[in-house]
Amino acid sequence: MDGAPAPLRCFSERHAAEVFADDGVETVTSAEQKKVEHNIEEVISVYKQIHSLPQPTLLREQHYQYLKKGLRHLSDSYECLDASRPWLCYWILHSLELLEEPIPAAVASDVCQFLARCQSPTGGFAGGPGQHAHLAPTYAAVNALCIIGTEEAYNVIDREKLLDFLWSVKQPDGSFVMHVGGEVDVRSAYCAASVASLTNILTPKLFEDTPSWILRCQNWEGGLGGVPGLEAHGGYTFCGTAALVILGKEHMLDLKALLRWVVSRQMRFEGGFQGRCNKLVDGCYSFWQAGLLPLLHRAFFKEGESQLSRQRWMFEQQALQEYILLCCQNPAGGLLDKPGKSRDFYHTCYCLSGLSIAQHFGNVDLHHELILGKEENRLAPTHPVYNICPEKVAQALQHFHQLPVPEADQRHGASSADGPSAPAASSGSAEHQS
Ligand SMILES: [Zn+2]
């Protein structure tokens, strides 16, 4: 971007007209909404007073220091995440790769050894050493290891046992429970499809009936709920849609209803996304919601939709960048939900991931950047299906596709005719989102 910086949307006169109107009926949620808008208005007005030339800055160095420290030491406030330790590895490593900060070899090796201790003897990864295997930390651990991307990292994953674990949580109706004896929701289908496709253990038999179960989660709102019949929700909608993309069945969704639902979740005043209808803006939905737009763009492209832009996703990319850069950064590093909330590694990861989606349109063949502020704000692109950098996805697929698909399927009644499959995401489709 050369010449004068582009004017900020939140500096324009029209912006004030976007505030919430309660039509004279005050409710608990309308009062909360007004409070959030008021806080954001204050943040913007302070920014205006200090900066005559609006150039929102990504606090790279501060975020880097915050992340680097988190890899080695966590404060007491993270005690509650003792069963989510592979998640902390993933959130931090992915944030660092988005910032294009290399991970020192010694740290990478320590993370590999730690994740190896989280791997359950029955397959899959647990939230911490000695705990039970669970699909969520399994997803986080596999993603973290693929980000590291060394032989040592790939070798941590026991693929045969991982496949056994996936079979142990598969349900007859096509859904998955999060852990043996645990709850069913659409996150599990995504976690299972993601790790299975990345490590080349995905077979049609393992995901038999899974697409039709996920499709039942899409409701009249257009988005997906956690299980059939529940309210549409950003996190579940992303998980269900991304799982269908991996399984090559996203065209079976009502894509237009989904598009309408997700674009309506971008807040008119704040610029960020809410997770559900009538909820407040939250920085982490910058990824869970905005990350749906690349998936939808590609799905519409595959359908032969001729009206698609070749430069922009179908959401306000600049408004989202303004929200993240002005409202979600802690001056001491780390990102957050909304002004007044504290920073954490989860929000740091998903705010940065959303910022990356908002900055980069397209894929390897067709790429268009829209970087708000200085060029230094530019993050690395992220893969919208796996949410790790695209080259790390390609590298993992290349590595694991040299290895045979383990035989566990036969023990679970699949005929050999099913054979090893090429998952949709590995045939390059996920790299071609537009
Ligand atoms: Zn959040």
Describe the fold and architecture.
This is Protein farnesyltransferase subunit beta. Keywords: Lipid metabolism, Metal-binding, Phosphoprotein, Prenyltransferase, Repeat, Transferase, Zinc. GO terms for molecular function: protein farnesyltransferase activity; zinc ion binding. InterPro entries: FTB, PGGT1B-like, Prenyltrans, Terpenoid_cyclase/PrenylTrfase. Residues 406-434 are annotated as: Disordered. The protein has 434 residues and is mostly helical. The chain starts with 27 loop residues before the first helix and ends in a 23-residue tail after the last helix. Strand 1 (360-362) and strand 2 (367-369) form a beta hairpin. The longest helix is centred in the first third of the chain and has 23 residues, at 28-50. It has a two-stranded antiparallel ribbon. It has helices at residues 28-50, 60-72, 85-98, 105-118, 135-148, 151-156, 159-169, 186-198, 210-215, 234-246, 255-263, 285-288, 292-302, 317-327, 345-359, 390-400, 408-411, and strands at 360-362, 367-369. The model is unreliable at 415-434 (pLDDT under 50). Helix 3 runs parallel beside helix 15, helix 5 (135-148) packs parallel to helix 8 (186-198) and helix 14 runs antiparallel to helix 15. The protein is built from 17 helices and two strands. It binds zinc ion. Zinc ion is lined by residues 282, 284, 337, 347.
